[in-house]
């Protein structure tokens, strides 16, 4: 079942479309959206929620009023469903990404910008930092963001988020092989990692206990609105 869906955030959402989408989300979520200063932040948060609801409807016929969120001890959102289901959302600038599976999953996307090596020195393990500074630009910039998204996806997959320090484990990227260790010991042989090159201006990584797909399902905003017409409360 493991799938990854992506939607490009529109520069502007028409008022009628926005009101339609907002009508599907919880009152708590609506209140949260009202606190965003920038409209694009509102769009990103809203579209992430909608992608989850649409997936549950189209794959499991779960009505909207039966979609209830809860949170683990680290604040990771989860759903109260009568079957195993895991999801994770990430967004950055133009993109919202969601991953779905029956086992724990994590995903992270970051816009590629300039690299601050002091951030790498503070938050990466010593091995990761040494791997990074051994590279020349522009390889160093891409490697930094690939490493960052891999580490974030791992923490989101195991459910701790940044409650577990980023430098408490080491990820190494060797061509098509990605390893994750702690004190030189593999953290879990069941975990799989993957980097996706779907937009040259972003790094996108996923972590899962199932085999990750090779491709991401792209959803256009107009397609999303069309598919939402069949969604029931």
UniProtKB/TrEMBL annotation:
Domain 4'-phosphopantetheinyl transferase N-terminal: 17-98
Domain of life: Bacteria
GO cellular component labels: cytosol
Keywords: Antibiotic biosynthesis, Magnesium, Metal-binding, Transferase
GO biological process per UniProt: antibiotic biosynthetic process; fatty acid biosynthetic process; lysine biosynthetic process via aminoadipic acid
Coiled coil: none
InterPro entries: 4-PPantetheinyl_Trfase_dom, 4-PPantetheinyl_Trfase_dom_sf, AASDHPPT_N, P-Pant_transferase_sf, Ppantetheine-prot_Trfase_dom
Cofactor(s) required, per the database record: Mg(2+)
Domain (4'-phosphopantetheinyl transferase) ranges: 105-181
GO molecular function term, any single one: holo-[acyl-carrier-protein] synthase activity
Assigned protein family: Belongs to the P-Pant transferase superfamily. Gsp/Sfp/HetI/AcpT family.
NCBIfam families linked: pantethn_trn (TIGR00556)
Name of the protein described by the UniProt record: 4'-phosphopantetheinyl transferase superfamily protein
Protein source organism: Bacillus aquiflavi
């Amino acid at each position: 079942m493991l799938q990854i869906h992506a939607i490009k955030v529109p520069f502007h959402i028409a008022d009628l479309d926005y009101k339609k989408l907002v009508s599907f989300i919880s009152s708590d979520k609506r209140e949260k959206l009202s606190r965003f200063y920038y409209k694009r932040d509102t769009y990103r948060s809203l579209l992430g929620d909608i992608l989850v609801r649409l997936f549950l409807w189209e794959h499991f016929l779960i009505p909207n009023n039966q979609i209830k969120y809860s949170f683990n001890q680290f604040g990771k959102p989860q759903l109260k469903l009568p079957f195993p289901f895991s999801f994770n959302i990430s967004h950055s600038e133009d993109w919202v990404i969601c991953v779905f599976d029956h086992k724990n999953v994590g995903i992270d996307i970051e816009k590629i910008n300039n690299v601050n090596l002091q951030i790498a020195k503070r938050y990466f393990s010593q091995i990761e930092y040494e791997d990074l500074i051994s590279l020349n630009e522009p390889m160093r910039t891409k490697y930094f963001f690939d490493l960052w998204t891999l580490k974030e996806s791992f923490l989101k997959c195991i459910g701790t988020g940044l409650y577990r320090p980023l430098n408490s484990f080491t990820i190494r990227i060797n061509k098509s092989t990605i390893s994750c260790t702690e004190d030189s010991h593999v953290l879990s042989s069941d975990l799989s990692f993957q980097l996706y090159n779907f937009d040259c201006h972003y790094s996108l990584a996923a972590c899962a206990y199932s085999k990750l797909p090779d491709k991401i399902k792209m959803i256009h905003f107009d397609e999303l609105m069309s598919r939402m017409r069949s969604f029931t409360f």
